[in-house]
UniProtKB/TrEMBL annotation:
HAMAP family in UniProt: RRF
Molecular-function GO terms, alphabetical: ribosomal large subunit binding
GO cellular component term of the entry, any: chloroplast
Keyword tRNA processing in annotation: no
Alphabetical GO biological process terms: plastid translation
Function: Responsible for the release of ribosomes from messenger RNA at the termination of chloroplastic protein biosynthesis.
Entry protein name: Ribosome-recycling factor, chloroplastic
Pfam family, any one: RRF
Alphabetized UniProt keyword annotations: Chloroplast, Coiled coil, Plastid, Protein biosynthesis, Transit peptide
Family: Belongs to the RRF family.
Domain Ribosome recycling factor: 103-265
Amino acid sequence: MTIGFSSATSVRSQLTQKPIPSKPLFCFQDNFRTSGNVVSWAASANYVSLRVGSRKLEPLVKLSWVKRRGIVRCATTEEMEAEKSSIEKDVKERMAKTVENVRSNFNSIRSGRASPAMLDKIKVDYYDTPVSLKSIAQVITPDASSLLVQPYDKSSLKAIEKAIVSSDVGMTPNNDGEVIRLAVPQLTSDRRKELSKIVSKQAEEGKVAIRNIRRDALKAYEKLEKEKKLSEDNVKDLSGDLQKVTDEYMKKIDTVFKQKEKELLTV
């Protein structure tokens, strides 16, 4: 369907005139049948939307001029939904991963009570390959103030002991040739406050990461707007939804931070 259109005349008059080759033309590239029953047109500046019968061509599309001929391709609803869903999925996955990273960092900070997570960050040089301690040994807590490291391969005991000594966990390993025992020292009041500042900084870093993910999503929406796959109103609505998701994950970081802070400051 090709319809002559000029900003200097009304839409109604254009629908009754024959196309004039010397003027710009609309060319809607889509597969549909119509008996000419055009229910409604909407136009604003260089943007138009068209409803044919019960079907609406989505959404506000912009004329692209090529010499004296213009071509408009209307993005389908399916295409737009696919783009939006992809961005939303990526945002939630990245934000959830950020929260888990923050939680993992908190778990690796000892609070005076024994926890296997205290050794999560330790890397062991196992046959000239750096691997995580928990991948080559089982870490258990026989009581609230000690850890027990049981290697799957006893020949790795020396390497594990060396890795613990070189780490910043602040515990001295006791290797009896079968297992490694670690006594978890009680924290002083000053050390608790110092660790509280560390987790506060890590929580803020997590929030910065969340805000960066939000920024990336906004750029993706703006790109779709430039490509005419989304209208300005679409982008405003999606930005509002994105802010709600951002606030949700910010609260999750606040929750894990408060839990860790309470754990650190409780004697």
